[in-house]
Here is the input.
Amino acid sequence: MKTQLRREKSPVAALKIHEPLSDFELPDVSGKMVKLSEVIRNKKIVMINFWASWCGPCRVEMPSFEKLYNEQKNNGFVILAIAEDKDRAKLDEYLKQKPVSFPVLVDKDNSLLKNSRLRVFPRLY
Here is the structure.
């Protein structure tokens, strides 16, 4: 029936508290390679955001992330925004219009996304 909720298991249920995220290395938008294990070594808190420029909720939350990052970056906090855009030109255009100061990494072939357990955007670790 249309009035009943679908009772599917949430993809969030697959995540385990304190389960480490596998190490990865991706280029940032300028081409510089960024490795998660190296970022974690130097920071107290690392927030990883999977997003795409075509994702409406992702675009809505980016200004809040920029504000949070600027308020907390001197306290050992960093955001790694992993762009899952297949069209690099659209990603670059978005960042040109709405630049951010935290690292934006490019998952060009979506390999990191494919290994992830969640299939929705935005997604935060």
In short: The first strand starts at residue 25 and ends at 27. The chain has four helices and six strands.
